[in-house]
Amino acid sequence: MEFDVLIQNGTVIDGTGSQGYQADIGIVGDVIQAIGNLQGSQAKKTIDATGKVVCPGFIDVHVHSELAVLDGPDKYAPLKMGVTTQLASPDGFSWAPLTGNKFREMQQYLSIFYTDQTIREHTEMSIADLLAVSEGNLPSNIVLQVPHGPVRLQVVGWDDRPATDEEIGQMQRLVREWMEAGAVAFATGLEYEPMRSSDVRELAGLSKIVAEYGGVYVAHQRGYAERVKTGSSETIAVAKEANIPVHISHFTVDEDAAAMVQQGLQDGAEITFDMYPYAAGSSHLLKNLPDFMQVGPPENVLTRLKDPKYRAMMSEYLESHVAPELIHFAAVGEGAPSWEGKSLKDVQEEMGLDLTNAISEVLIQSNLQALMIMHWPEHRVHFLEDTFKHPLHMVSTDGIYIGKRPHPRGFGTYPRVLREYVLKNQWLTMEQAIYKMTGFPAKRFNIKGRGVLGSNQYADVVVFDPQTIADKATFEQPRQDPVGIEHVFVNGHHVIEKGQVHPGNPGRIQR
């Protein structure tokens, strides 16, 4: 038997959760042709994986990478961690299908999350236009999700109100277009505009279309931590009303969260969730403002921020909800001072302003382009262990590839889990961790042909050294490559060899 690639003598951990075993893997074209004892076989390229783990390429179910992987300094950052497939439109973010001012306003709203030069070249964007941007330009695979944000904006606009029956019908037609284009889920971000104004009636109505295609409802909930009961109750209500599996984004299992998941399961809801291995999140500074300050297009938000009356209205809320010493800046807009790496408390003291006026001025001077890293209070850090041990958890990065000091999760998540949570802390076995990174997300999101090593599966393969695997990215120096990821294949293409990138675009839009 002759192969294009033969990976010999490795410990195969196949992504199913089953015990690892010694075997060889033979690749022909873009698929795995055989797994087993392939000694004596011929191959154009042979890799000796003695002492190494051979597993499926990792699947990142929540990451803001759709544009970063097209070009720029972080194009290969996911691959360097072993990520070969990423889900698009997390938090319901996207630009299609939008036209005219709505497209321009959404582009402005999302520019703090994406290096968006490619998007700026457009004045409107259909679903087909957006897919054309990625087609043939991907170093790794992309899986589509229906983005709630542009779907609602195109039909309802920025209005802070429930959708009418007629508007829900129009949104359902757009959701169906996305599902026909190959989406596997409906993703929403209920703490972002304009999705914040949607209700269960709308969410369930749109999810029913997704359920017809066997899809999943994916929620950045309307509440976590102290508000997890509110957010989870709404998620479970959508699951029951739409009869659809639900997946909760970046969900931490504290006592209340665990109770809500258990109650949902008892009520018949099918629930999974993801989380990254860091006690810190990242989002735009605007998210700290009370709801009434965030409503509407960016120009309206800026107008309110400049008005002393509105600043006075939100002062008490900010003082009770924001801990400036726990917030550090990852990125700020062009023309704003160099605040990257500084805490909000430091910036506040530099400005000589109280918290409300400091936040307002930062947002105005950066044209709302202020990305923050929010460190958890100390009493919540230990919940990471319960989260990663939970059987419904899968791994994600929630990586945001923008700014001088981005969160290190976009550069170190998967090696960090393997080093810290498997080999050091022993929270998980190697088989359990790899299942949470590969087979489990593939099963939940119905990603065909990926996530498991087997005959006729796509040849997305990672070879890593369990003795050296480690993340190097830190909050001070996030753009540092991990070590121990020796080989990565995407659709049979050798994209990482002995830790070095082979530039190219073998990735596909998974439909």
How is this structure best summarized?
The chain is built from 18 helices and 22 strands. By secondary structure, it is an alpha/beta fold.
Q: What are the main properties of this structure?
A:
511 residues; alpha/beta; TIM Barrel; 2 domains; nine-stranded mixed beta sheet; six-stranded parallel beta sheet; 18 helices; 34% helix; globular
Describe this structure as you would to a colleague.
- With 511 residues, the chain is an alpha/beta fold.
- It has two domains: 58-279 and 378-445, TIM Barrel, CATH 3.20.20.140; 284-375, no CATH class.
- The protein is 34% helix and 21% strand.
- It has 18 helices and 22 strands.
- The strands form four sheets. Strands 1, 2, 3, 4, 5, 18, 19, 20 and 21 form a nine-stranded mixed beta sheet that branches. A six-stranded parallel beta sheet has the order 9-10-11-12-13-17.
- Helix 12 crosses helix 14.
- The longest helix has 16 residues, at 165-180.
Q: Which helices and strands appear, and what pairs or packs with what?
A:
Elements (H helix, E strand, L loop, with lengths): L1 E11 L8 E8 L2 E6 L5 E7 L4 E4 L1 E3 L16 H4 L2 E5 L12 H11 L6 H4 L6 H8 L6 E3 L2 E2 H9 L8 H16 L4 E5 L10 H13 L3 E5 L7 H15 L3 E3 L6 H12 L4 E5 L4 E5 L6 H4 L3 H8 L2 H14 L5 E6 L11 H8 L3 H11 L4 E6 L7 H7 L3 E3 L13 H16 L5 H8 L1 H6 L16 E4 L20 E6 L2 E5 L2 E2 L7 E2 L1
Helix pairs in contact: 5-6, 6-7, 7-8, 8-9, 12-14, 16-17
